[in-house]
Amino acid sequence: MARVEGLPGHDARVNIMIVVIGGGWAGLSCAAHLRRRTDLPITLVEAAPQFGGRARGLTWQNRLIDNGQHLTIGAYHETFFLLNLVQAPQWEHRPLEWCGIGLNQHIMQSWRVPNPRWPWRALLGMLPGLGPRGWPGSWRQSMRQILGELLQHQWRIDPSLKSASRRGLSVKEWLNHHRVPNEFVQHFWKPLAEGALNTEIESASASVLATVLRDSLGGPARSCEVRMPAGNLSIDGVDAITRWLERHNVNLLRGHRVERIVQSGDLSWRVDAQHGDQLRAINTQWVVIALPCHASSRLWSHSALPQTKPSQRWQQMDHRAITTVWVALDAEQERSLARLPQWFVLNPQPGVPHIGQVAVRRPGILGVVMSAQKVQHDSHASQHDQPLRSALQSPLAVQLRAQLGVDLEPLEQKWITEKAATWACTVDAPWPDHAEARGETGLAQLYRCADDLVPGYPATIESAVRSGHRTAEQLATELY
Ligand SMILES: Cc1cc2nc3c(=O)[nH]c(=O)nc-3n(C[C@H](O)[C@H](O)[C@H](O)COP(=O)(O)OP(=O)(O)OC[C@H]3O[C@@H](n4cnc5c(N)ncnc54)[C@H](O)[C@@H]3O)c2cc1C
Questions:
Q1: Is residue 100 in contact with ligand 1, taking CB distance under 6 Å?
Q2: 24 lines ligand 1 (CB under 6 A)
């Protein structure tokens, strides 16, 4: 029978039936949905001292920030279902305002996307005063043409459009087919697609972008609305979930890095976790690996498990980095930025390096996001990358001075680079088949959930949460 060996606060005779490895949003969601389905003992094992993974909050200089700036919208149904379930604090709701900034804080374009459901949202957007401001007629015409195509094909890319590479169509190719004006690409489509898919438009999948547009722009009322935690992702999200899990008797292990999983007998697994200088073994019937592809692959090979179709797919996944710079503003700088919206796009300007793409204002802080970076890496662990910072710092300083009037050098800065921030949502990224999307790994009683398991969707908190739910449902069918 399954036994816990040497776990603090645990009676060695207690049976642990399900172990979830990884306490990011996928693992948290999986544990919560499993608990809704079963009273069996569940243990959630996290390597870091804190839960939340890539989407967790931090405190810096007594100010609340996140590991990287995250944008969440009303279309994240499963995420907000989970947050409601655990009675997390209410997140702020704001209309989505696409605002592009040029030199000297000049607002070049701004579009407050109306809240009513599709198609009222689009129809209202065509009324004078409610549509995008600062868009020339050619951009509006181009937008109408693209939305027309998407509607005609139920928010899919026109199948008659062919890619030169014979793979799926990239965002760049798709926009070229529509002869979208270059300025419109640079000021709207590129930041939109690269922000949503974290992949350069030359390689990013147009059909995934169409899905994102369907669920946001083409979705029900308030699906475009921006939702922001009042504090940070941990205070208003992760901590509420972990408290709920604890109240519902889910055993939470922090600081336990799983080194390998070993088949022990026909019907059980042993999970070996390193905690400080101790190696702890947890015997269990079911295991859920809630890790990104690269970490799942590493665990699989350390565990010498036989290759399966899913494990081979994880090895083929490429990744992109995101660097976020948090800058502590003084009172005067904060006042000078106060007329800008809470988050905005930094539009490219002739003669000014374009490194930072999106900026966000928080109390006393400016965050600047640099996404869709292709970087060389031998380790996918998150790290503060000094060489990358040296390369980005001076062009970013020039850009922020020119566009926002902010002098970067003397200000306190926190640089966070996640080298494998997300998997690359390219035209040739391999998608999971149905069985893998249900959480199956090809080995009995061993499941997986992660942000790459929702076919057609990019890596987001929502896909992590959805996958956690889907895998929990699948495992539950095996329990009863
Ligand atoms: C900078 C940045 C910006 C982003 N912006 C957005 C955004 O705007 N909107 C959006 O929706 N999404 C965004 N994302 C993506 C989003 O954060 C991820 O898709 C989501 O958090 C993935 O959750 P996960 O649980 O699948 O994986 P992870 O968050 O990676 O969780 C995996 C967990 O497993 C733990 N772990 C790893 N190895 C082991 C081991 N051996 N044993 C035990 N535990 C282990 C890790 O510590 C981690 O906590 C962004 C990501 C980054 C990095």
A1: no
A2: yes
